[in-house]
Amino acid sequence: MTETAPRAVSVGVLKGGFGKTTTAINTARELAHRNDSALVVDLDDNGHMTRQLGFEAEFTSETNHTKRVLVEGEDPTQYTVNVVDGLDLFPAHTELESVENELRNATMGSARLRKHLVDPLLGETYDYIVVDCPANRGKLNDNAMYATGNIIIPLKPESGYDSGLSNTIQRLVEDAREYFELNILAVTPTALNSRIDQDTRDRGLLEQLNSLDIADDIVPSYARITEEEWDAIDAGEYDGGLPGIRFRGSIDAAHDAGLPVRDFDGDCDQLENYAELASIVERGGIDR
C-alpha cells in the first residue's frame, strides 16, 4: 500500500444523479480537515457543485476560466475560490461544453488538466485534489482520469446502478487503462435509506458490491458485509451498524445551505464514512 502522500482523485460514474457531487465535496472537505489543504475541481458541465456552494457568479462569468486554464495555460490559482478554511474550489463554467470541443482538437488535449492544474498545484499549494467529473464520456473526463490516475465510484440504490457500475468500469476505467495507469480507490454506496433484511435496492446494491472478486480491494469497510453477517441479517440477529453512506436530512440541508456536511452539522454520523474515504485517498487505496 502506498504511504500517505499528496494525491489527486477523480469522483466519477457514467450516470447522472448517483451522488458524485456529494461524495466529491465531502471527501475533499474531510481531506482538508485532516490535512493542511485540499482543492475540489468542478468539471461537471451542469455546475451543480459550483452553484450549490454559492458561486453562481463564477459559473456564469464572462471570463471562461476553465478555457483560460485548460486550453490557454493560465495560472489556475487566480480563479480558485475559498469554500471553507482549508478547502478551495476551482469552479465549473457554463461554457464547459465549448472547452470540451476545443480539447478535442488541441495538442495533447487529454493532458491539459494535469499539465496546467494538477502538476503545478499538487504537493505545492494543495495536499489533495478531488475532481468532480461529468457523467458522460469525453475529453473533460479523459483529462480527469489522466490527471489524477485514481477514481472513486459512487453508486446510489436507484434503477440502473448495476449498469452504471459496469459502464464506468468498462467504458471509462478499462478504456483508460489501455493508455495509462488508473486505480479504483473505492466503490462506495451512498444515500442508502431502505431495509437490507428484505429484497430492496439497497440490499441488491450491497450484495452486488460485496460479491465482486475485487471487493476486498475497492469496497470500504463501512459497506462490507460478510456471508455470516448476511445470515444474521436474514435471521433477525444482526446487531451491527447499517452499511454504506446513509441518507441523512442534514446532508440534503447542507446542500441547500451551500456547505459541506462537516460545516453544517458536525455531529452527522455519516462524517466517519467520508473520513474513511479521505483516508483511502491519503493511503492510495484500501488497507484491510
TrEMBL record:
* Species in which this protein is naturally found: Halolamina litorea
Which InterPro entries does the record match to this protein?
A: AAA_dom (IPR025669), DNA_Partitioning_ATPase (IPR050678), P-loop_NTPase (IPR027417)
Q: Do you know which Pfam families this protein is assigned to? A: AAA_31
Gene3D superfamilies annotated for this entry? P-loop containing nucleotide triphosphate hydrolases
Taxonomic superkingdom: Archaea
Which protein is depicted? ParA family protein
Give residue ranges for domain AAA.
Answer: 8-174
